[in-house]
Task: structure prediction
Amino acid sequence: MNNQQSHGTAKTKNPVRPAYLVSGAAVALVLNVIAFWVADQAGATWEVGQPYALEVYAVIGATLFMFALGGVVTWLVSRTNAGFVKLAAWGGLALGLVSMVALVNASDWATGLALGFMHVVTAGAWALSLLWNQEG
Result:
């Protein structure tokens, strides 16, 4: 019979499941690329005050970068603070929606509408990926 105590060395399971984040990123990526293509066909100029041409690669990169950076930070912090997952979910959603304010610089309605849609899709996919991520 072994009566040893762990003295705080027991590992707790990380509440972030990467498969949920990868799935959310994939859904957001597909919807954002479709939105880019539809808006491009509708005559979007993709000019929002940036010094470079906005291409589909920028949409892909921005979507994946947000999920990768946010996912790594959330995973690392939630290892010691499981409650951080909900904060990251709601904070990411708020950041994605608030950052749409910059789209007032869009030179045409198709660009503004498409980029706004992409912000909502990415922020929503991020939040749902983390909120549905919770076990129980």
User: Anything to note?
Assistant: The longest helix spans residues 18-41. The radius of gyration is 19 Å.
